[in-house]
Structures are given as C-alpha cells and as structure tokens.
Design goal:
The protein has helices spanning about 20-45, 50-75, 115-120, 145-175; strands spanning about 15-20, 75-80, 85-90, 95-100, 105-110, 125-130, 135-145. The chain is α+β, with helices and mostly antiparallel strands. The protein has two domains: about 15-20 and about 75-170, Pleckstrin-homology domain (PH domain)/Phosphotyrosine-binding domain (PTB) (PH-domain like, Roll); about 25-70. The protein has a four-stranded antiparallel beta sheet with strand order 1-2-3-4. The longest helix is centred in the last third of the chain and has 31 residues, at about 145-175. It is elongated, with a radius of gyration of 23 Å. The two termini are about 40 Å apart.
Amino acid sequence: MLPLNNMRPGEQVTMVLRRHWIVYVMLGTYVLVGCFFALTLFLLIWNTVFSWLVALLFTMMFCLFLYIEWLNHELDMYIVTNNRIIGVEQISFLNRKVTECNLGQVQEVNSETKGFFANVLNYGTIYIQTAGSSANLKMDFAPDPLQSSRKVLNIVDDYRDTHNSMASFKREELSE
C-alpha cells in the first residue's frame, strides 16, 4: 500500500481513502468555462496586441487557478493504519493540515450523502468524531461513504477488541 515515514513498529497501512473522481469532472467543467470565457474575450478584441496580452495573462492565471484547485483535491486523504488514523487536508496552496488520532480515541464514524448526483454517483461526506482535544475529521467527496465508514468502524472495532483482550490478559498475569 502506501509507506509512511513515521510508522510505528508493527504498524501497517490498512486503508487509504482519497476523493471521488467527480472532483476531476468539476475541474474539467472549470476548464471548459475558462476556455469559453477566454475565447469570447479574445474574439471581442482580437485585433490588438493588448488583446493578445490580456488573453495570455488570463490563460496563465487560469492555469494557476486550475493547478491549485487540482492540488487541493489530489492531496486530501485519510490513511488508516492498524493503530491510528491520519487525515491530510490540503487547505490552500502551501497550507496543509495533518490530523492524527489513535484508533482508541474514535467515538463515531458517520457518513452522509446529499443530493441527486451524490446518490447516483455514490459519493458523500465522512465524519470521524474523536474524543478529547483532537480535531474531528471530515472528508467531502468521499467515494462510497457508507462502505468506507463501515470499513473504518470495523478497523476501530478490531483495534479495540485486540487491545481490550491484551489488557485483560495483562491483568490476569499480574493477579497471578
């Protein structure tokens, strides 16, 4: 799967959750609207050097906007290991938020699907509520939100079962 630089001994990546492909369709729509606008602008004032300069400037700024939008969606992910959940959210250009919580701190995993396209194309929002002062995790445009939230919850339950049985085993050892 995906190797992490700061993995703990015995830790394995169980699940990686990225955004749904619909965000790339939205970016494609931006491209079409931008091309239409640039072509319209160019045809209105096509005979001057100024029009070429304006069209070039608009194209460069628009390509920069598309790159930043693509980057914001491409780098968002949840990495679920057998010990923790790491949420990586690219907020804006050169602004990233990384949230990490132990699987024992997870209280709830919810999913939400709103709207016609979200139901037909099977994408939505996943919420992971944690205990304590750590931030709650939220991913918009998550693919198959119901199944993904169930997988995360199953991983959390397996973690708790393993650690509860180990704790009870240690208590029995100490009492003997």
